[in-house]
Design brief:
Length: 247
């Protein structure tokens, strides 16, 4: 768990520095599109769409962009995206799980395979890493102005498995089946959730040296830069020493 949360922090900082706003919006619009096409275009009636819109707002996507994406998704000319996942190992035997949304699966397969081959990885068969990652609900919101001791008690009652505070942000982890109830609890508490979703959390992490870590993160960066890739997860342990060396 610690490896995942520290990596999330690094990604937040890196994202702020790189300001890859356009690429982030593209990924968010894809999620809005598939959620709206598969369910109701009504945010209140479609939990997946409500979550996608929440994340878009957390990324400061303009309201007009969100509404336009929903409208386009439910029209006759709306794009159709296929969900797919890829599993493999990066440098140092680090497990890497890739989630994609694409309108051209052949292109996606080729791009993901090329990234693994070029940057020292090996693409495996689907299901080969399922034992290494647990599906968890993750909620992130600002810690400013909160009584963290009282908040922790409230969230534990609502099913929180883990609560971490880092860089002014609170990250709450829940079991897959408690995602909906935690979402409702945070809404009741009027907390401004900046990001929420189901993520793959490694149940066992692996420590590597700095040079290997750089290679792993290069592969992760290349995968994340693909327009077809939504999320990339790994089980590399981001120790404080490693995080400092990579900063």
């Amino acid at each position: 768990m610690s490896g995942h949360s520290k990596w999330s922090t690094i990604k937040r900082k890196k994202g702020a520095i790189d300001a890859k706003r356009g690429k982030l919006f593209t990924k968010l619009i894809k999620e809005i599109t598939i959620a709206a096409r598969e369910g109701s275009p009504d945010v209140e009636m479609n939990p997946r769409l409500r979550l996608a819109v929440l994340n878009a707002k957390g990324a400061n996507m303009p309201k007009d962009n969100i509404e336009r994406a929903i409208k386009k998704a439910t029209g006759a000319d709306g794009e159709t995206y296929q969900e797919s996942t890829f599993e493999g190992y990066g440098p140092g035997g680090i497990a890497i799980f890739v989630e994609c949304l694409s309108d051209n699966n052949n292109r996606t397969v080729a791009d993901v395979r090329a990234a693994f081959n070029k940057y020292g990885g090996n693409l495996g068969t689907n299901g080969s890493l399922s034992f290494l990652f647990d599906r968890k609900g993750i909620f992130t919101f600002p810690a400013e102005g909160l009584n963290l001791e009282e908040l922790e008690l409230e969230l534990i009652d609502a099913g929180a498995e883990d609560i971490e505070v880092d860089s002014g942000m609170v990250t709450v982890t829940v079991a897959l089946e408690d995602f909906g109830s935690m979402n409702r609890k945070l809404e009741e508490m009027s907390l401004t959730v900046e990001e929420a979703g189901l993520e793959r959390i490694p149940n066992d992490t692996k420590v590597v040296d700095v040079e290997t870590a750089r290679k792993v993160l290069k592969l992760v960066d290349v995968l994340e830069d693909s327009d077809d890739v939504q999320d990339v997860y790994h089980n590399m342990e981001m120790t404080p020493e490693l995080a400092e060396a990579l900063a």
